[in-house]
Amino acid sequence: MARNYNYDMYDYGTSPRKLQPEYTPNMPRKSKKVSQQKPQNNENKKKQNVKNKKAKKQIKNKKQRRLVTYIVIGFSILFAISYRNSKIDEQFSDIQKLKADVVTIEKENEQLLVNIENGSNLNSLEQSAKELLGMQKLTSKQSVYVSLPKVDYIEEN
Fold first, then answer.
1. Over pLDDT 70: what percentage of the chain?
2. CA torsion sign, 114 to 120 to 123 to 127?
């Protein structure tokens, strides 16, 4: 038993209503003007056209000057940024060079400290004295003994 419903009779409210626009655009009306050309009006129109052309040129020149100044300002800002970055890179490379110099100087200092420690023992001193200065050890004939009295020369008050 199939039921046959007629859905066209009912409005369930699911379809949107068409809205009317809130405004109507104003379309310019073209009106036909009957122009009567007078010689005086032609001269006035020519003067106005010349003035309008001059004004348009001035506006155009002003816009061009403004554009050129913006471009110059933009390039100067970019130049300043690139100059600053180049200076930063230059200083960074100088710092890296100085750090490398510090490392080499520290290595030299450590090597000199090791040389001083090695050179301060008696055997190396004796050997350098024999080789460099031509010194020799004392023999029994070269030694002279001095006897000193055991009296103190300090007076007490």
1. 76
2. positive
37 vs 102, more confident: 102
Look-up of token digits 């350098």: 128
* DSSP code per residue over 101-144: HHHHHHHHHHHHHHHHHHHTSHHHHHHHHHHHH---PPPTTT--
Distance CA 90, CA 98 (A): 12
Phi and psi based region of residue 13 (left: phi greater than 0; alpha: psi -120 to 50; beta: remaining): left
Question: Looking at the predicted structure, is the pLDDT value of residue 12 above 80?
Answer: no
Single pTM value for the model: 0.41
Please enumerate in sequence order all residues whose Cβ is within 8 A of that of 125, keeping only pairs 6 or more positions apart, or say none.
Answer: 119
Phi, psi of 44 (to 5 degrees): -65, -40
Helix (H, G, I), strand (E, B) or coil at 24: coil
What value, to the nearest 5°, has the Cα angle with vertex 68 and ends 67 and 72? 120
pLDDT tens digits along 116-125: 887 777 887 8
